[in-house]
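Section 3.1: Structural characterization of target chains.
Under the original work plan, the team committed to producing a structural model for every single-chain target entering the pipeline before any wet-lab resources were allocated. The record below documents one such target. The sequence was received from the expression subgroup and is listed exactly as submitted; it comprises 334 residues.
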Amino acid sequence: MSMPRVSERRLFGRLGVGVMLLSCATLAGAQAAADPAQWLSRMRQAATNRTYQGTMAFAAGSQVSSSRVTHISEGRERYERIEALDGQMRQQFRHNGALLTLWPQTRVAIVEQVEPIADFPALPASSQRALESYEIRSIGSDRVAGHEAEVLLLKPRDALRFGQRLWAERETGLLLRTEVLSPRGDVLESASFTDLSIGGKLAPESVLKPMKKKLDGYRVVRPQAQPTQLDAEGWSLKGSVPGFQLLNCVKRPLDAADEAGAELQVLQSVFSDGLTHVSVFIERFDAQRHKPMRTMLGATHSLMNRHGDWWVTIVGDVPMATIQQFEALLQRRP
């Protein structure tokens, strides 16, 4: 199973929320200035309901990358175009839940329907649940990519999660920059706009036209994710990791196949504490492909281990001790 790319998880918001009346922006801004917690809701709404275009930069450990992103909001319709500016060329085009990813160098096209999972510049839907695990306070003002910003500190209430600093654009609430902090206050990873234009009229055709093209010369992959439940697949957690709740559980095909040529599948469960995520992947064990491993890159920790006839991968922007708790609680039903 290929591991999720850290930069993709952290850089691009994929959260669908209801449309916010923009005429309320001034009132919301005044309320948020008085109550730092309300900035979380403003950030979440702005990432989806605003039109913006800019360049994002991401840094974790020795990895540095950047992407150009265009996000268009028209009524209930959302359009997004993302182009990687570093490394192998990659383009993504999204209209609501329909996502097309193109890899021109290898001539691979991935066509899929995706569920909304929040990442920069969005935040998860449960701002209230985040406040159960984090203390939030305003620590001043700053400028990011030419925009005035309110700076917020989210301090974890326990050792199971990392702290974060967030920069929110003063007028719209759009998240401009984020840093994940170690318990000592060191920056583990960061994501930020380096240039940004908010508002204006952008053409949805810049997204729709590439999605309508024939993919001649490309190997087209259409992964089909099936919603399911952990217990329906024979798994459960014999307890809970404090603060984390199950968001969704799906079963999707792997790129690999067994000796008989049958398609293999992986089970993915996503847990959230309202601010960050932990993903648990379960698939059949294959001695040729699977070797126990622990990795760390920036704030992202992952653990891969065998559980009987199964192979479990757990990954998230949380301390390794949190990852280990998820593994210890995971059990196969007899």
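Confidence is low (pLDDT under 50) at residues 1-34.
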